[in-house]
Design a protein that fits this description.
single chain, mainly alpha, Helix Hairpins, Monooxygenase, 3-stranded antiparallel β-sheet, two-stranded antiparallel ribbon, 5 strands, ATPase activator activity
Length: 279
């Protein structure tokens, strides 16, 4: 025979670990009755029986409880990601991104939110290997170009056009340091705002004005070429500084340096225009 006090403790422990209202308010299976079975959930009961559980929230938030001072809910149970499958044969796509199905070799639609670095098979770095980038670009376009799908279905032709355009955009963005750096900032949620002249260093703006005036007054190709050579050197120095800032995750410093790079890149374009006038 157990004492009455022991029975009360055991009953209280069972009631707390499995309170009736938690059982009643269990979330419904989002896949029930839909025929989808690719998502699986896994909740470990041993977590719900841990001795450090704090039940302060049970009376206020239905279906929620505190575990080691952190909110835990049925929605935070681990879920396996839904892997994309081929639109034609329904086989799972192994690679990411998948341009073609490995089973039926059918072209696939572009995958949303895939970074340009993944598309071009590049390391996420500011110092991209441009030769490797060009090789990858040519390989993709040889297989994805719409001319290869003129005899295919309308859907396949549309997918080839979308994939080819996406590869073009990824290649052009990662090819040049300025657009590459701006894209890396965008991936981190930062953008280079328009009208940054007011925030720029006055000495830097004065330097830009003098360079532009000298370029306008250039009378020979040699004078314009010298300005272009000096500009290339400054762009090279900025490339090293931006790479270091991004490597250290100093995003604000990288943005300021990219602003300078944008102005020098404009001067470089003006030098090319000036040289074309002497031809």
């Amino acid at each position: 025979m157990f004492p009455v006090s022991c029975l009360r403790i055991r009953c209280f422990h069972r009631a707390v670990v499995n309170p009736p209202r938690l059982m009643k308010n269990r979330l419904p299976d989002p896949n029930a009755g839909t025929g989808h079975s690719s998502v699986s959930t896994c909740c470990h009961r041993k977590d719900t029986c841990h001795s450090n559980i704090n039940f302060r929230g049970l009376g206020k938030e239905r279906g929620l409880f505190h575990y080691n001072n952190k909110i835990f809910s049925p929605r935070s149970c681990s879920t396996s990601e839904v892997k994309p499958s081929c639109w034609k044969c329904k086989q799972l796509l192994v690679k990411t991104p998948s341009f073609f199905c490995s089973s039926c070799q059918t072209i696939q639609p572009p995958e949303e939110k895939t970074s340009y670095f993944n598309i071009m098979d590049c390391d996420y770095t500011f110092t991209v290997d441009t030769q490797k980038l060009q090789t990858r670009y040519l390989q993709l376009q040889r297989s994805l170009h719409p001319d290869n799908f003129s005899q295919k279905s309308v859907k396949e032709l549309e997918y080839s056009e979308s994939q080819s355009a996406l590869v073009n955009k990824a290649y052009e963005t990662l090819l040049k340091p300025l657009s590459r750096g701006l894209y890396m900032l965008e991936l981190q949620g930062m953008h280079l705002e328009e009208g940054t002249d007011a925030e720029a260093d006055p000495d830097f703006l004065l330097e830009l004005m003098e360079i532009n005036e000298a370029l306008d007054e250039a009378q020979t190709p040699e004078e314009a070429s010298k300005i272009g050579h000096d500009t290339k050197g400054k762009l090279a120095d900025l490339t090293v500084q931006i790479d270091a800032a991004l490597h250290k995750e100093e995003l604000h410093a990288a943005r300021a340096l990219l602003t300078k790079m944008k102005y020098y890149a404009n001067i470089e374009d003006k030098v090319k225009e000036k040289l074309s006038e002497f031809m």
